[in-house]
Amino acid sequence: xxxxxxxxxxxxxxxxxxxxxxxxxxxxxxxxxxxxxxxxxxxxxxxxxxxxxxxxxxxxxxxxxxxxxxxxxxxxxxxxxxxxxxxxxxxxxxxxxxxxxxxxxxxxxxxxxxxxxxxxxxxxxxxxxxxxxxxxxxxxxxxxxxxxxxxxxxxxxxxxxxxxxxxxxxxxxxxxxxxxxxxxxxxxxxxxxxxxxxxxxxxxxxxxxxxxxxxxxxxxxxxxxxxxxxxxxxxxxxxxxxxxxxxxxxxxxxxxxxxxxxxxxxxxxxxxxxxxxxxxxxxxxxxxxxxxxxxxxxxxxxxxxxxxxxxxxxxxxxxxxxxxxxxxxxxxxxxxxx
Length: 338
Prior knowledge:
Blueprint: E1 2-9, H1 10-17, E2 20-22, E3 28-32, E4 42-45, H2 52-55, E5 62-65, E6 75-78, H3 82-93, E7 102-103, E8 108-109, E9 114-115, E10 120-121, E11 126-127, E12 132-133, E13 138-139, E14 144-145, E15 150-151, E16 156-157, E17 162-163, E18 168-169, E19 174-175, E20 180-181, E21 188-190, E22 196-198, E23 205-207, E24 212-213, E25 218-219, E26 227-229, E27 234-235, E28 240-241, E29 246-247, E30 252-253, E31 258-259, E32 264-265, E33 270-271, E34 276-277, E35 282-283, E36 288-289, E37 294-295, E38 304-306, E39 311-312, H4 313-324, H5 326-337
Parallel strand pairs: 3-4, 4-5, 5-6, 7-10, 8-11, 9-12, 10-13, 11-14, 12-15, 13-16, 14-17, 15-18, 16-19, 17-20, 18-23, 19-24, 20-25, 23-26, 24-27, 25-28, 26-29, 27-30, 28-31, 29-32, 30-33, 31-34, 32-35, 33-36, 34-37, 36-38
Antiparallel strand pairs: 1-3, 2-6, 21-22, 38-39
């Protein structure tokens, strides 16, 4: 739940969101909230059908719903994408901290670094030799940019994010706390005595425009070539992108996803929480893997897969239903063998 001292009328809110209002246009909204715990003065939303029944009993003053949603006691703001509208509404009531241009006296900036206009460099940040930063960068405390790292305009790095040497980031890239871009890939060659010889990881990690990497996620550098995350992709907390992998445009890698080395993920893919993909596999454009799926082979474009080894989602659902009946089926088989 987000709160503020700001309030807007439903008429103003409908105009801002380009929604159709069913209700009193002069009523004021003071905050946004989840539909389960909303109170008078709140704006809530329904995007998931399983919450539709809550809309009839919610205490929220107004609810964002789809155009054909049934009438409810609360006022409704009707539009095609209630969830997106809810995201835009939050911005009316909550403003994150702003960071004025300036360099903290404890920041360590190499004289060969190039810093664009209007940068905010926080306490104990370290910016190495030959780093290049575009305009409007926000570098919060304890961020480290290794030598020859580059980032475009509007780069935002939260505390303790790290960008390693020679890695390149596009415009509007956001790194949440503890994100590590370009750490060494996991590459070792076995020697004759059984010990492991470390393979130098020479290739950079590259993040294109509008990529966000969330807390404690790791995008490893490549032994040769590059690791690349294409424009608009979003990488959730604790995700591992292995060395030499490619992640397509507007793809979502949800929490604890793991990509082994040289994995190729297409555009508009969704890998739900804890999905694992074996090395050298390709997941086609628009594919979806449900939570905890294990992918040992290529996945065709547009497929929905589940389970381990990952199979067609509908087949997996039938298999799970059958699995729950195995004790009963076994008893039936034993009784017939007697």
